Amino acid sequence: DPVTGKDRLEGGAVRFTQLPRDVRERWARGHEKLTNLLKDCTLEDNSASHRGGAVTLQDAEAWIVNCTLRGNRAGSGEGEGEGEGGALYAEEKGHVRLFLCRLYANEASRGGAAAFRRAFGWMRNTLVYANRGQYALEWLEAEYDGDRNGHRMLINYTTVSDNHGGGIGWFGTIAREGLVTPVCIRQSIVAF
Predict the structure, then answer these.
(1) Which of 25, 67, 133, 172 could form a disulfide with 41 if both were Cys (CB 3.0 to 4.6 A apart)?
(2) pLDDT tens digits, 83-119
(3) Alpha carbons 71 and 113: distance in angstroms, whole number
(4) Rounded distance, CA 88 to CA 51, Å?
(5) Alpha-carbon torsion, ordered 102, 61, 14, 63, to 10 deg
(6) Which of 117, 91, 89, 87 lies closest to 102, judged by CA?
(7) How far apart are CA 188 and CA 192, in angstroms?
(8) Which residues of 57-94 are buried (b: 16+ CB within 10 A; e: fewer)?
(9) What is the CA radius of gyration of the chain?
(10) pLDDT band at 82; cut points 50, 70, 90
């Protein structure tokens, strides 16, 4: 069953944050690394007054596999602050991987489908369609810290099309070492 109609400040349906250090250390003694997973889900018609209409990641890691994020919204709609990430928002070294997903008909002032602030990830075989925002996918403050092969997001075999605004945008890139490529796009279609 789809998760629908949730309304929160951040992460309308789901909010991932890093577990406390003592919990992570106890788990690591005998287990593999903890990773959040959303698989075969539909998150629709959720809202957040600030960020991540459906999902927010803050200093956390998540796989989102074969999911539909549809009709989600970030922002109050009353002109008080911009909403960021209509369907998805990742920040503060959040690491998100989207595979075989559909992000469509979501809305936010910045990142109609998704917004990333100092976050990493990759997107593969994903459809980003008919979202409303300045750009469908938007990188805000894409700071580079010398790892992840010099880019913040790798996009492969993905279609970004028919979004109201633009396709992909990045702003505020800060380089500590060398050249920064915030977004690497390979074998994908990006159109307005």
Answers:
(1) 67
(2) 999 999 998 778 899 999 999 999 999 999 999 987 8
(3) 10
(4) 8
(5) 30
(6) 87
(7) 13
(8) bbebbbebeebbbbbbbbbeeeeeebbbbbbbbbbebb
(9) 16
(10) confident
